[in-house]
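User: Structure please.
Assistant: Input sequence and predicted structure:
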Amino acid sequence: MESFILTRKEMSYLLLSLTGNLEQKPSKLLQEAWTKFHQSENQNELPVIVQKIMKGRIPKGLSLGDIAALGSHIEYSTLSVTAMQNWVKRDFKEYLGSPRQGKKYSMNQAALLFMIDDLKSALDFESIRQLFHQLFLKPERDDDDLIEPAQLYKAYAGLFETIKCNPSFQNHQMNARNITGEKSWKDCVIEDSTEGMIKRLAHLTRTQSEAVWNTIFIAAISVQTCYFQSLARQSFHAALFLDF
């Protein structure tokens, strides 16, 4: 089986597409992601979970096994079923709860699991819970969330792609003022890379909006940490095979 890698931005689009919140169909998104790196369009070469989605066999929800299988194709990810079981049953039970779609987890729950995997590269579990407490006011309800998890995942995935594609951003001081003296570098990059989010958050108070923007930034930097950890692992394995 050939390798199949999705960026977080592509994964966020897939989750939104599976919930019907994106015009593009899941099969189209996955086919485009596959053909970026492979000349063949033969679906028999695709990973099983991808074939399952493309054939419409996941209409409403995902099992933990499905989420882990998808997570294994996200770049720099280390997601595992065992870890997710611990999060669901103990560490983040308050925020993840029980499966929302029968015996399957919703796309927003899947997004939360992907976010936990990213954030843990830079934060401990208690810190992650504190972030979630600011965004998801009453975990047992969805209608009071400051932002849907899938939309939050999409926002910081977009920010990470902006940072990754513009190395010069990484050389600036995070809180340095721009030439107008009005906004920090962080604020400018977030706004440029998350276009459309401002209208979505227009109903929030200033404090609530800041909580969302801060989480987007923290999560994007956490993904950057995932990248460096992945790079370190690759370098380590390469070093083991050196001949002396």
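The first helix runs from residue 8 to 18.
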